[in-house]
Amino acid sequence: MREEVNCPKNREKKKGMVAFDLDHTLLDHKKGAITPSSLEAIERLKENGYLVVLASGRNMYDRYSYDYLKEIAPHALVQMNGTKVLLDPLEKQEVLMHSVMSKDLLERLIRFGKEHHIALGTAIEDRDYFTEEEQVVQYDLNFVQESDRNFAPVEELLQEEVSALCYCGGVEGAEAIRKNFPELNVFPFSRDTGADLLEKGYSKAMGLEKIAEVYKIPREKTLAFGDSFNDEEMLLWANVGVAVGNAIPYIKEKADIVAKPIWEDGIYLTLKDLGLI
Predict the structure, then answer these.
(1) 132 and 81 together in one domain
(2) Do 224 and 137 fall into the same domain?
(3) Based on the number of CB atoms within 10 Å of its own CB, is 198 exposed (0-12), middle (13-18) or buried (19 or more)?
(4) How far apart are CA 25 and CA 4, in angstroms?
(5) How far is CA 277 from CA 34, 70, 273, in A?
(6) Which InterPro entries does this UniProt record tie to the protein (predicted)?
(7) Are residues 109 and 157 in the same domain?
(8) Segment 134-140 mean pLDDT
(9) Which of 3, 14, 135, 225 could be 119's S-S partner, Cβ–Cβ 3.0 to 4.6 Å?
């Protein structure tokens, strides 16, 4: 189910739009923090009259992500790979578009996860709804060395508005989901540690296009940074698509520019070279 909201069109005029993925693009997972030079670049973009958009596969309002949203303070948000698009996400939270996964599809995914021992689910606010909870805990320990999940029965997801799910595991599980659910986009994480699961027809690019329409920003005034499979359409849609230097090889091939890695201030230096900051 897709809902679109007509938002007021009299927006403050912007010079252009710059969109950023979060994980491995702004967020350095080695340090568990957004790189300081990227935050400085974002502030300078705002000062210089550019619209800053955060475009993530995450639900930025869950307890693992909201602090990053506050730190970046974007003008607009494309979250869960384009299934929900918001303007002024920290204050007014104006919903521009919102897609909700059908209950039938959600129920089939939960059943599939249980039957095949595949960990999938999502976090909503302070609760974690997943099949195979032990696998999720081990996943956390492997990649962030800690786990403080607050699990609730995964069946309770059927009472929630769910736009996308997360799969935690290796390539084989992602392929099994893709094979059995052809109606889904299965976007592998950049390090093959899981995948985003959402209905086909949505993308970060679609979200950026709708935001640009509201702000009357022409496509030739758009720029996007990313690192992984779910960033491909966004980088191709933007007038200039930038792959950070630590991006997967596939995305580097699709990009117009390959920046230095984020821990070498790749975002800041690229924006400076382009004359935006």
Answers:
(1) no
(2) no
(3) buried
(4) 29
(5) 18, 21, 8
(6) Cof, HAD-like_sf, HAD-SF_hydro_IIB, HAD_sf
(7) yes
(8) 92
(9) 135
Domain count, the chain: 2
Among residues 175, 199, 223, the one where a domain terminates is: 199
Handedness of CA 108, 109, 112, 117 (dihedral sign): negative
Using only C-alpha atoms, the chain has a radius of gyration, in whole angstroms, of 18
At 102 the three-state DSSP class reads coil
* Residue 52: partners with Cβ closer than 8 Å, 6 or more residues away: 18, 19, 20, 42, 45, 46, 72, 74, 75, 76
- Two tokens, residue 93: 């939270």
Name the residue among 219, 258, 262, 261 with its Cα closest to residue 241.
258
Q: Tell me how far apart the alpha carbons of residues 224 and 25 are, in angstroms, rounded to a whole number.
A: 11
Instruction: Work out the angle at residue 95's Cα, subtended by the Cα atoms of residues 91 and 101, and round it to the nearest 5 degrees.
Output: 130
Which burial class, exposed, middle or buried, applies to 120 when counting CB atoms under 10 A from its CB (0-12, 13-18, 19+)? Answer: buried
Global pTM reads: 0.91
Largest CA distance in the chain: 54
Residue-range definition of the domain harbouring residue 116: 103-199
pLDDT band at residue 7 using 50, 70 and 90 as cut-offs: low
